[in-house]
Known about the structure:
The N and C termini lie far apart (about 80 Å). Helices cover about 65% and strands about 0% of the residues. Among the domains are: about 10-80, Zinc/RING finger domain, C3HC4 (zinc finger) (Herpes Virus-1, 2-Layer Sandwich); about 95-230, Leucine-rich Repeat Variant (Alpha Horseshoe). It has a three-stranded antiparallel beta sheet with strand order 2-1-3. The protein is mainly alpha-helical. Helix 11 (about 235-245) packs antiparallel against helix 12 (about 250-265) and helix 14 (about 280-290) runs antiparallel to helix 15 (about 295-305). Pathway: Protein modification; protein ubiquitination.
Amino acid sequence: MEEVDVPSYFTCPISLQIMRDPVILSSGITYERDAIERWLFSNNNRTCPLTKQPIGIEDIEPTPNHMLRRHIQSWCAANTSRGVERFPTPREPVYSTQAIIKILDSTKNPRTLVSSLRKLREMVTYSDRSKLCAENVGVPTVLVSIIDRSIGRGYDDEEEEESVSACDEALNILNSLQLSQESFHNLYIGNPNLIHLLVKVLEQSSSYQCRVYAIFLLKSIFMSISPLYMPAVEDKLYIEIVRVLRDGMSTTVTKAALRVLWELCPWGRNSIKATKAGAVGVLVDLLLDTGETKICEMIVIVLDKLCRCAEGREEIIRHGCGIAILSKKILRVSNLTSEKCVKILQSLVKYSPAPELLKEIAQLGVIDKLCLVLQMNCETKTKKIAKEILRLHSKTWKNSTCIHPKFLSSYPI
């Protein structure tokens, strides 16, 4: 094969191998189907690799270059004696845009809705190409309308079972599409009731799987929405998120729920709403029970955001283990966890410095821990916050009998 002079136009510009299934883009360049589909779908590119021209929707299903393929096959057959491999005519893609559109039409019939959705799920999960085809023909919007029709309509028992199955399948497909942040943003702009629908799923659905899909979708939506479009979220969302955290459905679901709070709490009165829904108490309990680094980091990040409001600080102080667990996690999990725990303690002593709180902080060994922070190889920012806490109420700490003498001598406060 090394001695055979292969015509340059037989090779794919991406793979540099002889093309078995050449397809042509709207830019006029021919590529191997597998190579260009990896470029378009797996790598999420939207330009022609050679010309760098933007490609259109029609390039999701590039046109087969039958003439070039036959020419290549004839050339391979003529050079088999020289070690050139012959290859068969490639099969057409399993699922096309037309097939997906046909299935979408069948979802309009209530009798075949569930079976059509199952077939659609099989199609869109087949490959990255089929996912993009489904997105471009409007499958996400159709799925949102199906969820709207299926959730909480007060059907009889048989219809209720069908509606739950339809909602489950629609949520599953919407989650499986793995939409980009831009696509999720556009989906929300076109369907502003989407968040409300997902809250209804969390509130009313008896299906465990439906609730899981709803949490994952909410996480993706809030991570994608521009701050300019951040909605005024209803109180029920925080109640349901707290319920999910309390139920402890799974590690991945817990992380998704924490991410929802993470994205929401900085805006408007969301931190107050979350606090009123019981988020602080649940997060502290979760911090007591978990040892996983990522979850600990996410919890203290959310608690830090909640402590920016007086209601959040009050709930941490009121919780029997709030201050103790924050102190315990310092220097034990990660640098980020230590920083956030120290920052939360700073908010408490700076904005809620009741004598009872300061006494409790000293009794629980928090001041000793902060002095250790100054000795350890911690982030500079963490040490700076710890020094500020020690200085804020230095007279109180100095007169306390709960602080180890070696810290008082090493760090006169």
